[in-house]
Amino acid sequence: MEKKEKHKGCQCDCGFTRRGFLSSMGAGAVALAASGKIVTPAAAAGVKAPMDSLSIQLMINGRSQRLLVEPRWSLLYVLREHLGLTGVKIGCERGECGACTVLINDIPRYGCLTLAVEAEGSKITTLEGLMQGEDLGPVQQAFVEKDAFQCGYCTPGQIMAVEGLLRAKPRPSVAEIQREVSGNLCRCGAYVNIFKAADRAAELKRS
Amino acid sequence: MKEEERDNYYVQGLAVPETPEPGAEPKPWSKTAIVGQARPRVDAYERVSGTAIYPSDYTFANMLYGAILRCPHPHARVKKIDISGARQIDGVHGVLADTTTGGDIRWPYVMQWPYEAEKISKLFDSHCRFEGDAVAAVAAATPCQAMDGVRAIKVDYEVLPFVADERQALKPDAAKVHDDSNQVNKQTYSRGNVEQGFGEADVVLEKTFRTACELHTPLELHGCVANWDGDRLTIWESTQGVYAIQSKVAELLGLPLSKVRVIGHYLGGAFGSKLQPGKYTVIAALLARQTGRPVKLFLAREETFLVVGNRPPANMTIKAGIKKDGTLTALEFTGIATGGAYPAGGMTLLDWLVRDLYTCPHVKTETTDAYINGGPARPFRAPGHPQCSWALEQIIDDLAVAIGMDPVELRFKNIPTVSQGREGTPPYTTTGLEECITKGAEAFGWQQARQRTAAGRKEKGHLKRGVGMGSCVWFAGGGGPPSTMIVKLFSDGSVNLNMGASDIGTGTKTIMAMVVAEELGIKPEMIQIEHGDTGTTQYATSSGGSKTVPTEAPTVRSATIEVKRQLLSMAAVDLAADPADLRYNGQYIEVAGAGSRKIKITDITKLKKRGVVVGVGYRGPNPENKVINPFGAQFCEVEVNIKTGEVRIVRFLGAHESGRVMNRLTFDNQVFGGITMGIGLGMTEFRVLDTNRTGKMVNRNWHDYKLPTALDVPADMISIAIEMPDSEANNTGA
């Protein structure tokens, strides 16, 4: 296998590559790779296989929900696809974009990096949980007024990030706002209006 | 409902425009009451409450999830594929490969000028010419199980030599992407005589520039949900144009258009990458047919870095000649770019700014598109323009330094009034460039900022500041036919607007509602909008190219005027008057000159009987031999840490002439968004292919491919609207 890769017309003049380095690491590394499987202590008592199902209870937007989940399911997947909470968006499933931001015990967290089973016993708030009946909450209202979005897809996550910030800090500076929403990507580039909306939301929450 | 509440549907005392005679074209608005305001979006509630259902949000009780097995090599041949393992996996209901029904469907990557000969691929092509090309697909009960299924498919690849850099691709010993040459196309353009032009110049400079490949990566993943009812197919797709998806899917699957319904009410960003269906669309449809269940197939984020388009990398050499007084004498441009492994417009419009932006008598360009073993390009926010701008604006600045002239003044000296790059040099309807530069420089405080930052650079310290500016024109932006829209007025005076176009986040729906409100005098919030559905809304081209508002706004205006004409002739019966003597006046229709003889819209007998008035509008033609293009100028101040090289953008200003500003709020937002994406291309974004060892993309995620974040943009961003009356572009001036 290494042989095949070594040859293939490498046009670089560097004498050292990461792949070359790995292949020189010796028998131990090769043996691990050759087994083709990660060895898990499957026999250990109480350890669940990925496809097993578990019954859990989640506290979502003030209501308790009993669910049957696989241990590998993310909180994002369960909220979105099983409970129909479309205010939790899917963007990358690897903790880079923040589209799935929810509050866990009032702190903004990525739903894709949280397993559903991990969230048991915590207070989960999604965008839907900010609504007051059919009326918008203050952060949502501020996003409307300041046109703090274009396509609107990152918006639920941005709103949750701002909500989390304002719960912890009711009067943030612009620099603090910028830092707190920097874990939420907006490809349309509505950041400047998001800053304005966060500021306006702080004002609305105080009034 | 009480009568007074109904009266609230209309804006009191609003002067609505005159209704033109039947058959006559409406005159451009001289002044407007609602159009041009800064209004929050009509669909803002849905977008901030979570009730806006994006295509990726759809779920059905018996829905399956699709996943695609992709070639891990930049160039390989599938020798053997064994899908039996996938069928054994729990929850897997369907598997597709080139050997299963429909798997050998032809797949033209792009149907785009200027390519004559298409390199046709197949849905599952055993010859994989780029990393990530589709090899097989699975549908299963959960996304995890679908991935389990994909992993259980065994493929034996013959790995082939690859080329992953367009500059190497054109060398004679490079690996071949297709059987023939790696050169896709070469185009040349010339006017005047560049040798003569360089001879007349006082200064001639030549420089080479490169822009890296940029990825669209909209927040909503590419994909769709597909479902069959017998022989009728419904697709909920994240797209810029439902009709574009409908026509290609119908063609590929051999279905009549009437049997393919595409719905796309919302979409989470696209920037040109969702103008066409992907293989995923057809794969979802085939999996749904095979399993008899709805299938949701949205790509994983990593896949969107490989297979759904990009802004091609560009290598540009530019030679420019100038006189001491700032007059450009000649421009010569050579560009090499790549649209990836298939003809996909690698060099589309790459030379356009050189040809058209500044007055220059002698211009020569040559652009070459090369194949590499990389994902095919798709249109990306002004194809070709940002790349060319990077080269052209820098050489212009260098020329300014060389002749000791302010860069703003130099640009002033070379402002065109005609489109020099086009055959016959037709005039623009408006050329806002000069005003963009003047007003922009003034608002930015260009002169003072230049002096201040220059003085600052002489002081001690490692943080130095500088200012820069650039100008631009966009090749399209005027819109045009076809488009059809329907406006329905109900018996209570409220309105339903029916359009096929997508609102990709630019605020199209809001602007259309504002146009209806302008003409009818109704409040925009009383208008319900149906859109983005080939089953229930009217034909529209895809939203993109900054052409949606100038295409759709005149159409909706025509449809609204048609409603007014019908109301006038209905009211004529009640008022026993000639329709030509009647005046539509918002809530009332009155006899001109006899204000007392009037009737409330809601009292019109025929409207009450029929329950609805339907107005159909069509987009008329654009003016002949005129060019409708937007112009702009942007200014920014940066701070550079001269010890680390770190750059911080301090402030940014954009001055844009984009026709009539229909909604100031969404206009400014677009300007900010464009600036932010420009910061990305200029500062943080670049695709990295391992060109030497593996040919694979090494930064296919947002951790390694950096989009600008909230910390990379200045909070100090200003948008200036340059509005010039344009009575020629269309009847809304948009």
Kindly describe this structure.
The complex is a heterodimer of chains A (207) and B (734). Chain A is α+β, with helices and mostly antiparallel strands and 207 residues long. Chain A has two domains: 54-130, Ubiquitin-like (UB roll), CATH 3.10.20.30; 138-206, DNA polymerase, domain 1, CATH 1.10.150.120. Chain A has eight helices and five strands; from the N terminus they run H-H-H-E-E-H-E-E-E-H-H-H-H. Chain A has helices spanning 2-7, 18-23, 27-35, 75-82, 138-145, 155-168, 174-180, 191-206, and strands at residues 54-60, 63-69, 101-104, 107-110, 123-125. Chain A has a five-stranded mixed β-sheet with strand order 2-1-5-3-4, covered by helices on one side. In chain A, a hairpin with a 2-residue loop joins strand 1 (54-60) and strand 2. In chain A, helix 5 (138-145) crosses helix 8 (191-206) and helix 6 crosses helix 8. Chain A is elongated and about 50 Å long. The model of chain A is unreliable at 1-43 (pLDDT under 50). In chain B, a hairpin with a 2-residue loop joins strand 22 and strand 23 (588-591). Chain B starts with a helix and ends in a 13-residue tail after the last strand. Helices cover 26% and strands 26% of the residues of chain B. Chain B is globular. Chain B has three domains: 3-31 and 479-618, 2-Layer Sandwich (Aldehyde Oxidoreductase, domain 4); 55-160 and 216-304, Aldehyde oxidase/xanthine dehydrogenase, molybdopterin binding domain (Aldehyde Oxidoreductase, domain 4), CATH 3.30.365; 429-478 and 622-734, Aldehyde Oxidoreductase, domain 4. In chain B, helix 15 (508-520) runs parallel beside helix 16 (548-575). The model of chain B has no long low-confidence stretch (mean pLDDT 95). With 734 residues, chain B is an alpha+beta fold.
